[in-house]
Specification:
Layout lengths: L1 E3 L1 H6 L11 E5 H10 L5 H17 L4 H6 L1 E2 L11 E5 L15 H15 L6 E3 L3 H9 L3 E3 L17 E4 L10 E6 L2 E7 L12 E4 L4 E7 L3 E7 L1 H5 L11 H10 L6 E5 L6 H15 L5 E6 L2 H6 L7 H5 L4 H10 L6 H11 L2 E3 L13 E6 L6 H8 L7 E6 L15 H8 L6 E5 L7 H9 L1
Parallel strand pairs: 1-2, 1-5, 2-4, 5-6, 7-10, 13-17, 13-18, 14-15, 14-16, 16-17
Antiparallel strand pairs: 3-4, 8-9, 9-12, 10-11, 11-12
């Protein structure tokens, strides 16, 4: 029997469907918490409403007695029901030994302990995203686990970086190669074996001798690597910005490629994620006019709650959160005669819209560049909500640092950024680069390493 905590249903409103043949139980206290959070425009409220609708749909018109015993979970019309869903009323702890009931968490743990006494032959497991709740439950003698259905990797180091680096020469590891040249493009067809077997589409190969190539095609037996010239990549100027290292150069290459519809940049603070994305976006909207507008959104804990209390229009309310964008615009124009005038000119010239996540649901953005800043703070469900807003001719750019998660129920393994990186690694129109180093300043580099 799996007993779900409220934060699991907020993290993934369809979590009920992911326990296969097992019995899923929702305590009455959880329904009350969902009820208290369902109102408003915050993304949490929308997730609560979806979770409530899922519960209602699964229970259908079952009688109270059937709900208490467990209603079979039907996932598709013709599919055989698998597992059951029931609502658990709060009951007094039979032995009289219980936690104080002034907290909802304690009520749920007490209810579970009572359930365990009634069903001694069955495993009863609390599923919660709250570490402290799990510790309290285990301390009270109730088994507790994290919700891991959307955790695709066991170790953050297993995530693809977007490139493989070879010591010395890459070609020393190759026994056979077929090279094709057409229209100034050189492509190498290699056997997919050894290190090359780990490569995904749109990942890079680089070595210490200066060779750099991008995987443009892949199948079970072969890898096609397009030869890129390191000198050209390193000298590509985008809105006055020149890459400081080869990793930034690879990121810019993906950002400027119109065939890549999703770019995912990760890296430590100061590695250049935002400034690279912004320079490429301005270049593609103002200079080459490939896209009509730039839409920036970010997940900040206070953002969803605070936007309603600030005076003014949505654009004015979002201004405090535009700081990161304006800072990077100033950095791009710091050599201009009048930096302030340049930044004001860009902000007036570039169709840059800063949107709260609350107002993105249900929208469809055509021919737009969508920048999702601080995407490590999003759940997999929230990241799906934003990426599915991209209409025809749009490109999504996700920026994040998995070492700086500010959301209480997320870890580096359960973050939507990790989930998306792993899910999209085989997407032929997607690319990912993990930026290295901290080129922001010597001070930032030292702080990142030593604080």
């Amino acid at each position: 029997m799996y007993v779900l905590d409220t934060n699991v249903l907020i993290h993934d409103p369809n979590a009920l469907l992911n326990f296969e043949e097992h019995d899923v139980i929702i305590p009455m206290t959880v329904l009350e918490e969902l009820d208290g959070l369902k109102s408003g425009k915050q993304s949490v409220a929308a997730d609560c409403r979806q979770a409530i609708r899922t519960i209602d749909k699964l229970l259908g018109d079952a009688s109270p007695k059937e709900i208490e015993q467990g209603v079979p979970i039907v996932r598709a019309k013709m599919a055989k029901p698998l597992g059951t869903l029931s609502i658990l009323m709060s009951t007094e702890h039979a032995s009289g030994h219980s936690l104080p009931e002034h907290l909802n968490d304690n009520k749920i743990i007490n209810t579970l302990a009572s359930l365990q006494e009634r069903h001694t032959s069955r495993d009863i497991i609390l599923v919660s995203k709250d570490i402290n709740m799990r510790l309290k439950a285990r301390g009270f003698g109730v088994e507790a686990q994290d919700y891991q259905n959307d955790q695709l990797v066991d170790d953050i180091d297993l995530l693809p970086k977007g490139y493989i680096e070879f010591p010395n020469s890459f070609w020393d590891t190759i026994t056979k190669v077929e090279t094709l040249q057409r229209d100034g493009i050189t492509e190498h067809i290699l056997k997919r074996e050894g290190e090359l077997a780990k490569l995904n589409i749109n990942e890079f190969v680089l070595d210490e001798q200066g060779f750099i190539g991008r995987v443009v095609n892949i199948n079970d037996t072969q890898v096609v690597i397009r030869d890129l010239h390191q000198h050209d990549l390193m000298n590509e100027e985008v809105w006055g910005l020149v890459p400081r290292d080869i990793y930034q150069a690879m990121a810019l290459h993906l950002l400027l490629d119109p065939d890549i519809h999703l770019v995912n940049l990760t890296g430590s603070a100061g590695s250049g994620k935002t400034i690279l994305a912004l320079a490429a976006c301005i270049e593609m909207t103002v200079a080459s006019k490939l896209y009509k507008r730039i839409i920036a959104t970010r997940s900040t804990q206070g953002l969803d709650e605070d936007i309603g209390f600030l005076p003014g229009t949505e654009a004015e309310k979002m201004e405090p959160w535009l700081g990161a964008i304006v800072d990077n615009l100033e950095a791009l124009h710091e050599d201009d005669e009048n930096m302030t005038a340049s930044v004001d000119y860009i902000l007036s010239k570039v169709p840059l819209h800063f949107k709260s996540m609350n107002y993105i649901r249900g929208r469809s953005f055509q021919h737009s560049l969508i920048i999702i800043d601080e995407s490590q703070n999003l759940t997999p469900h929230q990241i799906k909500t934003i990426i599915t807003r991209a209409g025809n001719g749009s490109k999504v750019i996700c920026l994040g640092n998995l070492a700086q998660i500010d959301t209480p129920y997320l870890s580096a393994l359960s973050s939507g950024l990790t989930y998306m990186t792993e899910r999209f690694k085989t997407f032929s129109h997607g690319g990912h680069i993990h930026l290295q180093g901290v080129p922001r300043s010597l001070l930032a580099e030292f702080a990142e390493a030593n604080l």
